[in-house]
Design a protein that fits this description.
The chain is an alpha+beta fold. The chain is built from 25 helices and 15 strands. The strands form 5 sheets. A 7-stranded mixed β-sheet has the order 3-4-5-2-1-8-9. Strands 6-7 form a two-stranded antiparallel ribbon. The structure holds adenosine-5'-triphosphate.
Length: 484
Amino acid sequence: MLQIPPKHLPYLHKIAEAAQEVAVDSYVVGGYVRDLLLGKGAKDIDIVCVGNGIDLAKAAAKRFPDNPKVVVFKNFGTAMFKADGFEFEFVGARKESYQRNSRKPVVEDGTLEDDQNRRDFTINAMAISLNEDFGQLIDPFEGQEDLRQGLIRTPLDPHTTFSDDPLRMMRAIRFATQLDFDILPETYQAISAMSDRLKIVSMERIIVELNKIILARKPSTGFKLLFNSGLLAQFFPEFCNLQGVDEKEGLRHKDNFYHTLQVLDNLSQNSDDLWLRWAAILHDIAKPPTKRFERGHGWTFHGHDALGAKMVPRIFRNLKLPLNDRMKFVQKLVALHLRPISLTKENVTDSAIRRLLFDAGDDIDALMLLCQADITSKNANKVKRFLENYEMVRQKLHQVEEKDRIRNWQPPISGDEIMATFSIRPSREVGILKNAIKEAILEGEIPNKYEDAYAFMLRLGSKIGLEANIENEEKFLENDPPSS
Ligand code: ATP
């Protein structure tokens, strides 16, 4: 028998009373029922009623403390309110079908059975009655048994379920990945046969499912299913291009698709940050377009870090991911992902360390996590050595940061001050001076102090023919700029 948590019972009783008041049958459906049977906590409670869901929502909300505000989505015939940390969503039972090549379903009122038929998987098609038989589980497709066996299966013929809404193919893989379930072979075959139908689904809906796959404990499971079924190629061809190994003169390179997935899984053990996981997905994205074979040397991917960073905005735009500071974060990590390796060499200077701290700023720890995850050698000795090297880099970063405070540092002289000092407009010279000051400090040629930077600016300005409009310029020009 189903055990509804005692804390939830009062809510469900209130909804049951409201349903009696508006004279409709009502049921809890979908993810809540599934997660209850899996012993997981839920945040959303979806209610289906045979009648008008909006009326039921309004009647139910009145029975909750403080009469929570009901948000109505008239076009969808749904309504929701929040209470006690839960989201209650109400909808009338529906029958719906999608026309070929159209995203718009034809929707009609239906029975509970109709509603269960149009659900995506047996494990999501169970309902709990809130009627006379309160608490009774209604499980027409043996979803409980599929939960026990760890199976993703469509309630109807998979071709019907998927052609009604092709997003369900993505959802099959999403649930298989999140729950570590298998997809029934017949269901999976239908996905492979129908993968090109995903084209009619909006990218916004696809990306919601993809991000849930990426946030799973082992995202590679989902990516392999997406790739092998042909779904991935429908919306993320750049990622598919990573797959494959070339051979010339007996030399092969590694398969960058499986390498990237290994990096993503490694990283996922240490970070739940969606965007850091995206950085792992994209860190080698420019390897295919930069791949060259150099005689006597082998395969190279020169510049894949810089080109990869350049590709990030287009990929984000195509995938309808946000074009904000999260994208910039991913771009920065892709651009910098080779830098910590270069710091593992023995005689690395403080200035190289300062430069990385300056370029990475507050994202230095995320970058180090990415680099650590990038070690995918099967040779345990090599992995150990690389990890030790990175530990050394971490220590050096820490020491230099303690000493020089570069992480959140801005060079002490701004462009405005340069323009005011030399009475010049925004121009190339301003950039040259600003950059030279930054470089001199990072290289350790002058101390990281305002007075030293100011004197340096005056000396350099005078060298390139600029005249400062200050009285005591002479004092600053006494010393020559340090030689670089
Ligand atoms: P989670 O909360 O982990 O995302 P969920 O099952 O609650 O899981 P939702 O996307 O909120 O996922 O969907 C709620 C329920 O609505 C599902 O359990 C399923 O019954 C149904 N559902 C959602 N999307 C579809 C769809 N595209 N086709 C058919 N049924 C769907």
